[in-house]
Every structure is written in structure tokens, then in C-alpha cells.
Amino acid sequence: MKLANKFNIVILTLGIFSGSLAAQPVVPLQSPSKAEIIDRFAELALECVHKEYPNIIKHMMNSDEDVKTPKQLYPAFYGCFDWHSSVHGHWLLTRIASQYPDSTRHQDIMASLAQSFTEANLAGELAYFNRADTGTSFERPYGLAWFLQLTTELREWDNPQAKHWLDILTPLENKIIANLTDWLPKLSFPIRVGEHSQTAFAFGLMWDWSLSANNQEFNDLLKSNITRLYASDVNCPLAYEPSGQDFLSPCIAEADLMRRVLSSTQYAKWLSTFLPSIPSDGKAEWLQVATVVDKTDGKLAHLDGLNLSRAWMLEGIASALNNKDPRKVAILNAAQAHKKSGLNSVIHDMHYMGSHWLGSFATYLETQRGLQ
User: Fold this and answer.
1) Average pLDDT of the chain?
2) Of all residues in the chain, what percent carry a pLDDT higher than 70?
């Protein structure tokens, strides 16, 4: 029995969704174990990384010859509704395989990754990046950042198969770094939205890659541009968040990015001017948890992802502050409230509009990837 169905059967038994059962004795709901939660995340990715349809593609066509199916365009990353979700779906599987080798889905994961990470498939992916008129903007910055997170996971996984897969993915990694290196100095202003084009979140993943890959040149390039774009920011308008279809917080993501770049002393001071509204009373209510009212609407369902990403970013912010900092408890309490809501949305039943991507966000949070 699939874990999602198992959890939902328990809920239905309690009469939560059925008025006819409401009068029955309430049996205490047993929370799923950590192993069950991890298997649930793996299930979500396994169900979509090789599911070609439905699909949204971003593809410039110059003639009838450019009309192709997702799998023809992206031989490795055609599933999970879109390219970037497929990429971080593969990251999810890689993360779970590397961190939880005893998972009941381990063999399924290894087989799924082997199906995707072939020389022929990655040659096809690289050919797409090199096609005429594609330029450097494809999946920039979100999808490219997640690809670097994928190769980071393979690079840090002490497994011969992972090293083999990394060798296969490296030519595309090199192409992506070349594209980003060309783009970064041209970016006149940061992109401060709550969706895919946001630069603060993507820069955080890129920064972590540069450290793991020991690529000092790219790290230096990132640092100079992050400092240029963000270091002078003050009074981020947190009261205006979230927008109705955000899955990333512009203010919280920037704060999580800057703790990577600044020293602890510099960061504590910078945060005081950037987010002066963080309270020192320990309460979590300074940052309201978002609620999704229609999970079949792909844009509205983004708010479940917002709760998850806020949770891990708040944990990141807190990790950079001294334990005596009076803001730290309020930050961690807000993180916990967002984590509870976000994980509940993933553990229980979802529409495909959320299930094709939310597992990656939940895995990033639950395994504390951003704190490593």
C-alpha cells in the first residue's frame, strides 16, 4: 500500500473527512515515522521523474522541425511536469539514496537514476543547451541552480555509482557554469519575485555548489555580485509578503543568502537593518503561515512550497546568529510553525499540481541540506 493512501485511510477512519463517522470514538493519530516520511518523499519523485505527461515545456521554435515531445527535447529531465521539477526530483532521489541507504525504496531509486543518467540522455540534454538561438536564459536561474544542487549531491556521495553518474553529468555542469558566468556580470538588478526567476534563492544553491566543487573562481564571482546586488539593502517590506502564488519569500530568501556571504558579526548587524521587524519576544506570529485553498490550482498550490522554503531558510538564518541573540527564538518558532504546515501538506494526499515538486522542498527541509 502506498504511504499516501495509508495516511489518508487513517485520517478517514478518524472521521475527519466524513460526517457519518464524526460521532465515532476518536483514535489517537499515530504520526508517521521518519522512515515512512522519507519513503513518502521518494514515492513522489519515483512517480513522476519518468512521467512525461502532463507537461509544460519552455522551448523556442523556429520551424516545424522544432516541434517535439518533452522526452525528445530533454531525454533525461522530461518528467515531473517541467524541466526544473524533473531536475530537483532527481536531486530528491539522489539525496535520499545517499543519506538513507536503508530506505525501502533504495533499489527503486537506484534503478530510476540509472535509467535517467546515461551518456546518451545527457548528450541529448547538452545538445539542447547548445542548440542555435537557445542562448543562456533556459531555466535561468532556478532550474540551473537545482542542477548544480544535483551534481553537489553526487559529488558528496561516497559511492562509485554516484561518481560514474557525476562524470556523465559533468559536461552539462560545465556548460551551465559557463552560461552563469557569462550572465552574472550583466545582471543589473536582483530579481525579487517569489517564483522561479528569484535570484536570492538560486544564488544560495549556486554558492553551496561552488564550495562543494571547490570552484573558487565561481565563488568569487558570486560573492562580488551578491555583495553588489544585496549588501546595501535595508527595510525589506516583509509586510507585503506573500503574494498569492509565491513559493519563495523574497525577504527571507535574501536573508538566508547573505548569511552565507557575511561573517557572523557582519550578518547580525546587516540583518538588524534588513529585517528590523523580527521580534525579540520569542513569538512566531511575526511571520504568518500560508494556506492553500485549492490544491488543483498549480499557482495557488505554490503556497505549500512557501511554507517549506520559509522553514528551511529561517533555520538557516537562525544558524548564523549567536545563541544569545534575542531574535533567534522567534525565528526558530516561526520556522517550526511553517515546517509543520508544509510537511503536513506533503505527507498527506496532494493533487499532481503539488506532488510533482513539493517532495523536493520537503526533502531539502527535512534533511537540512541548506545547513550543510
Assistant:
1) 92
2) 92
Nearest CA-CA partner of 95 in 81, 111, 84, 106: 106
Residue keyed to cell 473527512:
17
The amino acid that residue 86 corresponds to is S
Q: Taken in order 346, 241, 314, 245, is the CA torsion positive or negative?
A: positive
pLDDT digits (tens, 9 = 90+) for 151-177: 999 999 999 999 999 999 999 999 999
The C-alpha torsion from 223 through 225 and 169 to 359, rounded to 10°, is 90
Contact 45, 90 (CB under 8 A): yes
How far apart are alpha carbons 340 and 321 in whole angstroms?
Answer: 23
Q: Name residues whose C-beta falls within 8 Å of residue 169's C-beta, 6 or more positions apart in sequence.
A: 117, 122, 150, 151, 154
How many residues in total does the chain contain?
372
Secondary structure letter of residue 62 according to DSSP:
S
pLDDT tens-digit map of 78-92:
999 999 999 999 999
Do residues 146 and 82 make contact, with C-beta atoms less than 8 angstroms apart? no
Which residues contact residue 365 at a Cβ distance below 8 angstroms, ignoring those fewer than 6 apart? Answer: 308, 309, 311, 312, 315, 339, 342, 343
Say what the pLDDT of residue 29 is.
Answer: 53
DSSP H stretches of helix in 184-215? 199-212
What distance in Å separates the CA atoms of residue 370 and residue 208, rounded to the nearest whole number?
8
Q: Which residues contact 111 (CB under 8 A, 6 or more apart)?
A: none
Per-residue pLDDT band for 30 (boundaries 50, 70, 90) equals: low
Provide mean pLDDT across the span 102-107. Answer: 97
Residue 318's CB is within 10 A of a number of other CB atoms, namely 21
CA distances from 287 to 68, 89, 210, 216, 241 (A): 44, 28, 31, 36, 9
Mean pLDDT over 86-99 rounds to 98
Q: What is the pTM of this model?
A: 0.92
Say what the pLDDT of residue 13 is: 32
Distance (Å, rounded) from C-alpha 86 to C-alpha 233? 34
